[in-house]
Design a protein that fits this description.
This protein is an all-alpha fold. Helices cover 52% and strands 0% of the residues.
Amino acid sequence: MLCQTKPLEQEGVQLQFKSDKSIDKKPRVSEAFLENKEDYKMRLDYAMDMRLFFLKKNITVKKVAFETSIPASHLSRVIGMENGLRFQDYVNFKRIEYFMRKINDPEWKLLSLAEMAKLSGFKSRTTFFRAFVKHSGKSPSQYLEQARSGNGALSKTENMF
């Protein structure tokens, strides 16, 4: 099932990629990687944004590499170079984006945060909470309360992220 989503920027929300570990080292980049980098980015975007790979519970770089036919080292390099993130941080970021898009859907209105976290691909509420705070600067419950308040969606001026 394909999911059509509009960018969060259109909804007035900006997220920032944040990683615990800096990827400042400049790895040697092969010519094969450079020749295929744009194709890799397109395949990764399709896998994550259209096929929603990040919702899978036990997702690994090897599994995504296999499904996208991108060598695992090249996949990690694309994520690091484009987003400054390690694979798991990137996956958690995509899960948080998904959560933010879904929280006002009618079928999510009666769910608990723990249920929403699981539906967003997180194994535990604790992991969800830590990743959410890391990438957004607010707790999921603070975000949820603000997003569901009488104002509806968050305004652009709030610049939470």
